[in-house]
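INSTRUCTION: Work out how this chain folds

Fields: amino acid sequence; protein backbone structure tokens

Chain under study, with its fold:
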Amino acid sequence: MGPLIMETLFAFQNAIIKETAAALIIDMTEVPRIDSAGLASLVQAYVSSRGAGRRLALIGVNQRIRALLQMTKLEPFFPIFESRGEAEQSVSQAQAAP
């Protein structure tokens, strides 16, 4: 995927728009950094997912991006997991809850 920056965010946004699964799990393993436009795209993905009644989770988030999410007070909105399996289990449990 590469960095989530102004030059690459349109591909990211298109992929998010095309995704129709009940849960959106974004693999950040190959994302070394994000800029303000990339951060805004993540927020938009969150807003769109919530509006559609979908769950969103991040996996493979590096320390640099995690620190940015903490600094901007956005970390509570993005559940972060180490593996896809953990994320899928958490999301499916949350969807099953009344």
